[in-house]
User: Which sequence fits this backbone?
């Protein structure tokens, strides 16, 4: 069992490298996010031991719990890739390296004010914050580095999905830019489920088009696109972050239903 995650991980790394080279891109441009939602912490440890550092979680409660259990893993970077409710913002600030799912002006404001509050508290009383974070050994001290966020776009107008309507993207980006402790780094999208991964291509290209419409690569260098079944297509379209779960960890256990 213990070699499975490790060998699947290296398969996925090879897969990403191959797709990058085929697309005329450098594999270094692409971050593999191992999506560990509904996987036990021992699976995360196994991936970590195999060199993986970026992990994606969908549910804030599960993320907080896992991060706590895995706080001895130096240099681990958590990515929130699931919907974020405003009242959960305070839990993710200081814990995650990236939030991929900012999709409303209100959420940008709340997350931004939580991030700012944390910075101010840190400035006023570093010791207090450190005490607050005593559970999080090795986490970097509260800093003045803004939290990187991506805007999730609901690319096909699916009512079952979160993400902002493309016409609201400008407003959400402005709301993020107005927050001193947030930095918009890119766009994220989850295209409709398609049988043939190639059919996801037009959706990915639409994300690229939206990025070009809103400042291009200079303003929004990151694209969080692609999962287990369509990573190649996403990389061809320009993905910088691919979010792969089942191809690394196998099927998700029923730790918690969404
Ligand atoms: C679950 C999930 C993934 C991973 O999907 P797999 O098909 O298991 O690779 C990627 N992105 C998001 C937003 C997810 O919710």
Assistant:
């Amino acid at each position: 069992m213990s070699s499975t995650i490790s060998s699947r991980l290296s398969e996925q790394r090879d897969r990403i490298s191959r797709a990058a080279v085929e697309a005329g891109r450098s594999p270094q441009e692409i971050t593999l996010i191992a999506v560990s939602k509904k996987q036990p912490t021992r699976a995360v440890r196994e991936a970590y031991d195999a060199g993986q550092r970026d992990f994606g979680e969908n549910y804030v409660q599960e993320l907080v719990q896992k991060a706590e259990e895995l706080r001895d893993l130096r240099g681990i970077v958590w990515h929130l890739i699931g919907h974020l409710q405003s009242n959960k913002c305070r839990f993710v600030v200081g814990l995650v390296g990236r939030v991929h799912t900012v999709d409303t002006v209100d959420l940008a404001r709340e997350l931004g004010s939580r991030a700012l509050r944390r910075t101010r508290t840190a400035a006023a009383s570093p010791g207090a914050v450190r005490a607050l974070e005593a559970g999080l050994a090795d986490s970097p001290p509260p800093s003045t580095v803004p939290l990187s966020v991506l805007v999730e776009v609901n690319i096909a107008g699916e009512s079952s999905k979160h993400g902002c309507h493309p016409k609201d993207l400008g407003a959400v980006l402005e709301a993020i830019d107005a927050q001193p402790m947030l930095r918009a780094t890119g766009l994220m999208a989850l295209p409709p489920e398609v049988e043939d991964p190639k059919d996801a291509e037009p959706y990915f290209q639409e994300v690229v088009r939206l990025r070009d419409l809103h400042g291009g690569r200079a303003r929004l260098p990151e694209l969080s696109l692609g999962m287990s079944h369509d990573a190649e297509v996403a990389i061809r379209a320009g993905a910088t972050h691919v979010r792969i779960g089942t191809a690394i960890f196998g099927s998700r256990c029923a730790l918690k239903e969404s």
About this structure: The beta strands are 31-35, 54-57, 77-80, 98-102, 147-153, 182-189, 222-224, 241-244. The chain has a mean pLDDT of 92. Residues 35, 37, 58, 81-82, 190, 227-228, 243-247 surround pyridoxal-5'-phosphate (CB under 6 Å). The longest strand covers residues 182-189.
